[in-house]
């Protein structure tokens, strides 16, 4: 472990093991889905897509069968059900050291 790493693997400022490259998404990353759709649209005509989808559905592939069903019938609505008028209660007590945490 490097001298910058601190004790027992803890990180300290300037530690080379800290990965700072995964920050906010770039514009390219944000538009990735749209870029893929556009590229597919340029490479494959809708009829070719339908033929490929039907081929896999006839082979019994569950994902293709589901996709065909959703294209023909539409996606099934998933209604929200249940009682939404619940009261949340929190019980605060001691933290094991005899100290109270909260009210």
Quick gist of this model?
With 103 residues, the protein is mainly alpha-helical.
Describe what this molecule looks like in 3D.
This protein is mainly alpha-helical. It has a domain at 45-73. The protein is built from four helices and no strands. It has helices at 27-30, 32-43, 46-58, 62-72. It is flat and about 70 Å long.
Profile the largest sheet. Answer: none
Fraction in helix: 25-40%
Low-confidence segments: none
- Give the amount of beta strand, in percent: under 5%
Given helix and strand content, the structural type is mainly alpha
- Count the E strands: 0
Instruction: Determine the mean pLDDT.
Output: 77
For the record, give the distance between the C-alpha atoms at the N and C termini, rounded to a whole number: 43 Å
Mass-distribution shape: flat
Provide the succession of SSEs: HHHH
Task: Report the total helices.
Answer: 4
Assembly category: single chain
What keyword list fits this structure?
103 residues; mainly alpha; 4 helices
Q: How are the secondary structure elements laid out?
A:
Layout: H1 27-30, H2 32-43, H3 46-58, H4 62-72
